[in-house]
Structure formats: structure tokens, C-alpha cells
Design brief:
This protein has 173 residues and is mainly alpha-helical. It contains six helices and two strands; from the N terminus they run ββαααααα. Strand 1 and strand 2 form a beta hairpin. Helix 2 runs antiparallel to helix 6, helix 4 runs antiparallel to helix 5 and helix 5 packs antiparallel against helix 6.
Length: 173
């Protein structure tokens, strides 16, 4: 037992508390890599699900050209282009999230929000059942992104707390 500035501390308790691992915050990079892999999975899943409409769009683009395609733009073409943009943004978010920065989490969250909005809108308009899978993958991505963000914030807070603590020094007594 030590008295320090009018407070009593037990050194055994301090040593024990310093050795307790923090479950998710101890290694936040594992969750971030998992989130990145989930982004890649959802992008590849969406790419697989829109393979046939994309090939149709490419074939009609080769026959009619860009000007012919722009003249006959229909809603289905817009959905295909939006899905291709989501695939590219999802792959970019999977690479950016590895940076562990606040802006990377904001970008990835914005991509997920955009995925949810566009895929939900497409489902309401086209009633395509494959969009359930893409929406489910996006929701799982949101959960993983939230957990990885909380773990990195938690780890930063733990580091700040342990750096700012003034532990009593027994040699002073």
C-alpha cells in the first residue's frame, strides 16, 4: 500500500490492471483487414451478380457506340452503370480502409451508405431478388466497419489514458 497525494494505492492492483488485455481494442488491425476483405467480397459478389447485364451493355456499346447508347439510355442501363460504379468504389474502399485514418473510415462509410441507397432504390424499381444478397453484404459491411472503427477509437483512447497517467513511484516514499 502506498499513499500518494492523500490517496492510497495498492501496487499489486495496479500491476494486475495493467496486465488485463482489452479484447477487441488490443489488435484493431485484424478487424480492419476483415472489413477490407468483406468490402472485396461484397464488390466481387455484386460484380458476379451483374455480370450478365454488364456483358449486354458492353455488347450493345460495341454495336451502337457511345453516341447510340446515349440516345437510347434506359433505366436499366443507368442501374448497370451505377452497379459498376459501386463495384469500383467498394474495391477502392477496401484499399483505403487499411490506412486506419479517420478519413478512410468516412470514405468507406460513405461508400456503404451509397451502396445501401442505390441497391435499395434498384430493388424497389426492378424487384430483382439478387439484390437481397448485395444488400445483406452491405449491412454486414456496415457492422464490421462500425466494429473496426470502435476498436481503433477504443485503442487510441486506451493509449491516451495510459500515457497520461501519473503512476505513484514507490521510491519516492
Amino acid at each position: 500500500m502506498i499513499n500518494f497525494h492523500g490517496k492510497t494505492y495498492c501496487l499489486e492492483d495496479i500491476d494486475y490492471a495493467a496486465q488485463i488485455p482489452v479484447p477487441m481494442a488490443e489488435n484493431p488491425t485484424l478487424l480492419i483487414y476483415l472489413t477490407s476483405i468483406l468490402f472485396v467480397f461484397s464488390s466481387v459478389l455484386l460484380m458476379y451478380l451483374i455480370y450478365v447485364p454488364t456483358s449486354y451493355l458492353v455488347v450493345s456499346l460495341m454495336h451502337a457506340g457511345i453516341s447510340g447508347l446515349l440516345i437510347s439510355v434506359i433505366t436499366q442501363y443507368e442501374f448497370i452503370i451505377a452497379n459498376l460504379a459501386l463495384v469500383v468504389l467498394g474495391l477502392a474502399a477496401s484499399l483505403v480502409i487499411i490506412r486506419h485514418t479517420k478519413s478512410a473510415f468516412i470514405f468507406s462509410g460513405a461508400v456503404l451508405f451509397l451502396m445501401l441507397v442505390i441497391l435499395s432504390y434498384e430493388y424497389m424499381n426492378s424487384n430483382a431478388q439478387y439484390l437481397y444478397l448485395a444488400l445483406a453484404a452491405s449491412i454486414i459491411n456496415i457492422i464490421a466497419l462500425s466494429m473496426s472503427r470502435m476498436s481503433t477509437v477504443g485503442m487510441n483512447q486506451i493509449n491516451k489514458v495510459t500515457e497520461g497517467l501519473e503512476w505513484p513511484k514507490p521510491e519516492l516514499f
